[in-house]
Amino acid sequence: MIKLAPSILSANFSNLSEEISKIEIGGADMVHLDIMDGHFVPNITFGMPVIKKLRKVTKLPFDVHLMIENPEKYIKDFAQAGADIITVHQESTVHLHRVIQQIKNFGIKAAVALNPSTPLTTIEYVLGDVDMVLIMTVNPGFGGQSLIRSMENKVRKLRKMIDEKGLDIDIQVDGGVKLDNLKEVVDWGANVIVAGSAVFGSDDVIEATKMFKKA
Ligand code: DX5
Ligand code: ZN
Hints:
The chain is about 30% helix and about 20% strand. It has helices at about 15-25, 50-55, 75-80, 95-105, 150-165, 180-190, 195-200, 205-215; strands at about 5, 30-35, 60-65, 85-90, 110-115, 130-135, 170-175, 190-195. The longest helix is centred in the C-terminal third of the chain and has 14 residues, at about 150-165.
């Protein structure tokens, strides 16, 4: 099954609960929450207190994408705020294996993200420990960028690695996914789709979510 995780990065921040209820009506499978610290990426978004409040307005699982330095310092806070999945960047920590275990110790799903330039070999030895791998299809930091086509080979290679090892791991793609390239990324082997501007940039967020689910 292909899962849709709309990113609220492009949503109306002054009315997040209504924005989330729209994607819930539209049939989204989870909410993608982009956490940026102004260090790991050149942008700042929001943190635990916002997630904690949002936890009360929806039943949708929270897919928390940490684009922060020293993620190990904040895993507990994000888990307690209501994250169902926490994704850390391979590039953001030298103790990736430890952080993954830390996440799993809270009884939630652990995922690892790779920037476009980071090779798959860097996660070879933690592949058996994660529930999902996020292949960034833009350089992290901003919504509304265009999909980097050369990530096709990376996603296909990862799908092969996972299948060869007989693992059950989701592949998420994040960045630049629109209705017109959705089929393509699914064909590459991705099964969890993040879409920010394509959903929340639309005049009709409910309809846009439905169209994504249908496509
Ligand atoms: C980028 C974020 C993405 C972003 C995607 O750093 O991780 O989740 O919101 O936005 P679109 O779909 O507009 O590229
Ligand atoms: Zn993201």
